[in-house]
Amino acid sequence: MIIANNVSKQFGKLKALDNVSVQCNKGECIALIGPNGSGKTTLIKSILGMVVPDSGFITFNGNNILHHWQYRTHIGYMPQIGRYPDNMSIGQVLEMMKDIRSTSTQLDEDLIKRFDLEHMLHKRMRTLSGGTRQKVSASLAFLFNPDVLILDEPTAGLDPVASEILKEKIIEEKKKGKLVMITSHILSELDDLVTHIIYMQDGKLRFHQSIDELRKHTGEEKLSKAIANVMTK
Amino acid sequence: MKIFITILALLSLLSSGHASTIRVGKNLPFKTITEALQKAKEYDTILVEEGLYHEKNLIIDKSITLKGIHHPVLDGEHKYQIISIKANNVTVDGFTLQYSAVSSITDYAGIKIYNAHNVSILNNVLTDTFFGIYSQYGTNCLIQNNKLTAHNTQEQQSGNGIHCWKSDSMRIIGNTVTGHRDGIYFEFVTNSIIWRNQSYKNLRYGLHFMFSHNDAYIANVFEHNGSGVSVMFSHGVKMFHNLFKENWGDAAYGILLKEISDSYIEGNYFERNTSGIFMEGASRITMLKNTFRNNGWGLKIQASCLDITLKNNNFIGNTFDVGTNGSLVLNTFVNNFWDKYEGYDLNKDKIGDVPYRPVSMYSMVVEKNPPSMILFRSFFTSLMDKSEKVIPSLTPENLKDDHPLMKPLPL
Amino acid sequence: MKKIFKYVITDILRNKTVLAYTVFLLAISFSLFSLEDNATKGLLSLLNIILIIVPLVSIIFSTIYVYNSSEFIELLVSQPLKRKTIWLSLFAGLSSSLCIAFFIGAGIPVLIYEPTVTGFMMISVGLLLSIIFVAIAMLATVITRDKAKGIGVGILLWLYFSLLFDGLVLFILFQFADYPLEKIMIGISALNPIDLGRILILLKMDISALMGYTGAVFRDFFGTHAGLITAFVTLIIWAGVPAWLSLRKFNRKDL
Fold first, then answer.
1. Is the CB of residue C66 less than 8 Å away from at least one CB of chain A?
2. How is domain A2-232 classified at the CATH fold level?
3. Which residues of A touch C3 (CB under 8 A)?
4. Contact A154, A78 (CB under 8 A)
5. C-alpha B397: how far from its chain's center?
6. Domains with residue ranges and CATH for chain B
7. pTM of this prediction?
8. pLDDT by residue for chain C (255 residues), tens digit each?
9. Chain B interface mutation, best of C178, C201, C214, C217, highest count of B Cβ atoms under 10 Å
């Protein structure tokens, strides 16, 4: 579904992406992991078209994303730090997004209900706590029932209850056969979610394996241990 | 004024004394003025009834009074000078003259005075004459309440309204001149007065004045003339209470003063002229109680001028109050009101405590380099002027009013 | 396009700065017109405001606004929207809100006190300058990533167009005083939208007579229909080219 082909990106002296090639398919739930500054967010932003690669290309359903901006209708994106116009209220942001995308597909307002955002629609974005912003971001990512979900550090800043709600939602969506990409530091959270692992370091793709392979390979049941095992090798 | 009344009285005495009256009209024995003139004796009066007369060139060579009733029309048919006066003590009163000949060799006029004295030209209406009223070696003549209108568009093909050449003791009073080359033209005319005339929309100058000494012009209105008023090469000129207005154009002035000396300019009003007064080579001129309002330059005073005294004048709303081209200043500015003055008056004597420098830095820059006018009213030039006010460097050190007034004079 | 434009403009119009700018212009224009004894003088004083304040406010406000809405822009970019649409909506939103502010603040007083050709010329130059400096601001923001640096660049650009350029022109005029520069000056004035706008207004104010031969040369050029159209096209190019360059840059910008 999404194919990155020899993608490189350099910010000044820093090589954020170094010849990265990945292929992500429907029904997969991919964990994108790696140390800070390893290029995870850059890869995600490249897929979203927010960062334009220096070389290489990315295709979505066979189309080069550089020329087909419409592919983003199929993506729900939850940024690491959700940033919204300060002057708008939650309700206005939601309305605006609905207005801008004006899709005919069934809206998925499940998360809005579960996060109890309905009672604070009038609140201005600037008054919100980090956690609430994350809830808004998550709700927006799922709102349009997209085929692909890209979640950048989704549980950071969320309280355990909300975190659990989100995880349940991810599992539900995965079952519907959607492609989910998650970056996270907290590996233990990913255990019962992911089917594949992409491990990045210094802008390079270290490995891209299914979790079963990884477990077999390392002989570790827990994801965190398996990764640690790989990293120490 | 007194002289003028006495002369009028004398004239009327003379004409009514032993003279007879001849009438001219369509249904009268004399059908044309020419016939009547032949029969007329000295000091007779010819009364002309209403109607259109083709007299070709009417030559008056006897001292007679020619009077029109309800403005009979004398037509020059674009071929003739209409009236030529070649005798003394002639009066032409109350005619309409139209369509004189136009020539580039001869100065045809509506009425021309040849070497005569005590001629009166009163209450006539002149329409589309080449020159209007022309005096050549005239002495002690009165030109009063005439209305001269032409519709010229080109300077070369048009003559002057009231044109006096080598004349003396002329009185030009209450005339209205428009559409001519120069409204009133004086060359070698002495001891004369121009009073209460209106000269507007003439192609070149409202008043053109050369080599004419000891004349006065008082309470005239000069408006919308191509180049305003020009007074040149004369001394002893008095200009009182005239209005110079709307003489606006690239080379237009309220007054252009060139080589003028020993003259007085008092109580005049200069409004919306490109330059209120432009002075060149002028000396010993006293300017009192004039008002300069909304002109481009209030006063342009070239370095060739000396002993000019400006006192008690109002400068209000001019773009530049004073412009000059040199750094040497031999003129005196004192007790004038300048609306751009930003000084203070601590002792409340209504006189500012710091001098005012009417020449702005930018006006000096423009004088040196005319194309820099394209920076007119830009932020840069206003900053330049402000900084020059604080530390003068380019503007002439002596050109200043040490005792500027805090309030405008009631003029 | 229309939708995003709508959100941008409602956001800006709710901004207190724009409101303050409108009120400021309104207060200045009305006081100028009522203080001066004739309307033409009021117009002249207003000219300075238009040539200094309008570009300054347009460039600074737009720079700050674009930096402050980087979140919003980021959010939009991740949505199925063309970057071109986003950027042009932002440009259109900024320029139209500043134009509205200018029109209410200065245009309406001018129309009330001086509904002449000069007044109309002043309004159109003011509107065009607003748009031009929004475009320049957008180019400045898209080139510099850092907010403080971007605002600095904005102020410098304003300083250049309103002050330094004229100083440079004066320098050239004195250096080449022996050459007939009048015609060349027409070309040079096209290099600075503020100068071009100023000259257009001055020529309409019939102050051109003061400008002597230079004024005559300018009037001969800008007085004709072709000249006037050239001038306005130049001003539009001044808005269009920076906007287009910024768009090109934004299309390839990493967020």
1. no
2. Rossmann fold (3.40.50)
3. 99-100, 102
4. yes
5. 35
6. 2-390 (2.160.20.10)
7. 0.81
8. 788 888 888 888 878 889 999 999 999 999 988 887 667 778 888 888 889 999 999 999 999 999 988 878 888 888 888 889 999 999 999 999 999 999 999 999 999 988 888 899 999 999 999 999 999 999 999 999 889 999 999 999 999 999 999 999 999 989 988 888 888 888 888 999 999 999 888 888 766 667 677 777 888 888 888 989 999 999 999 999 999 999 999 988 887
9. C214
